[in-house]
Structures are given as C-alpha cells and as structure tokens.
Design goal:
The protein is mostly helical. It is built from seven helices and no strands. The radius of gyration is 17 Å and the shape is elongated.
Length: 162
Amino acid sequence: MSMRQFSAVAVLMLTLGTTAAATAAPNPAQPEIIAQNQLPNRVGGKENGLFEKLNLSAEQKQKMQAVRDRYKDQLSQRMQAVRQARQELQTMMSGTTANVSQIRDKHRQIMGLRQQLEEIQFESTLAMREVLTPEQRTQFSQMMQQRREAAKARRQNIQKSQ
C-alpha cells in the first residue's frame, strides 16, 4: 500500500469537510475556489501524514483502500457534475439569455447534486469509521477539526484579498 493511495483516502475523508464548507456559503462568482477544494487528485505533504499519525495496521490500511476504491468513481462523478453545473449557473447569471425561472432551476439542480455528493461522502466516511478503533476515531476527529478551521481561515483570507 503506497503513501499515494493513503493520501488519496485522506483526500476522500477531507472532501466531506470541504464540500460542507463550500455548500454552507455558496458563491456563484467564485466556483474556482470551491473546485480547488474538491479536486480528487489534491494530494501532497499535508495528507501524507494523516494515516501515519493514526498508526493504522496493515489490515486497516487494506480496508481503507477498499473503501476508497468502492466510492472513488461515484465521488469523482458527483464532484464533476457539481463543478459543471456551477459553471453553467455562472454563465447563466452573467448572460442575458436565461430567464429567472431557468436560473432558479439550475440552482435547484446544483443543490440536488450537492446533496447527492454529501450523501456519498457521508457513506464513505461511515465505512472508514468502521475501520478505525475508538482511539483512532477520536484522534481523526481532532485532526479533521483542525483542518476545517485552517480551511475556513484560508477561505476568509481569500475573500479579504478580493
């Protein structure tokens, strides 16, 4: 099991937090910020240490990989659908051909897609949770809270600089 695979699992788990944050404050004028937070290939140094810190056993690592594999395609498809629909909404908002009813329908579509994405993320997180011991769950929860706070601070800094 490679570090890249573990990193991808970490990204999967992180996606739940970043999508929830993006959904909490939608801004059609800034789809690139949300898309950056949801890229499935966003692996790097920060995610690499997540599972090392949890000290997963070989069996846990194998189970985590299986969970990741089970949900990977669904998550990727839903994220892409949300991104595309948000881009379409932005185009509709800035253009002159769409009427208010069409724009509202597109917004409802985005909300439905987000709900579907969050449900898949929730199910994958529940499946991963079952792999962790109670101590690992506590530690993971604390690490995720720290990451959510850091992501929130980054979003606030981006908004201030615009």
